[in-house]
Amino acid sequence: MQFTHRQRLLWGTWKPLLAAIPVGLLLGFAGPFGSYPAFPTTTRYAFWLGLTAAGVVAAIAANAVLPATRLRAGLVRMGAVALLSAMPMTFVVAWTMSLIQPGRFYTPQQLLGLFWGVAAVQLLVVYATTSAARRADDAEATDFVPALAQPEEELPPAAFPSALLGRLPSGIGSDIIALETEDHYLRVHTVGGSALILMRMADAVALLDPKLGAQVHRRWWVTEAAVEGIRMDGQKLSLSLINNTLVPVGRTFTAAVRARFAQTL
Question: What single string gives the DSSP state of each residue in 172-217?
Answer without folding.
Answer: G-S-EEEEEEETTEEEEEETTEEEEES--HHHHHHHS-TTTEEEEE
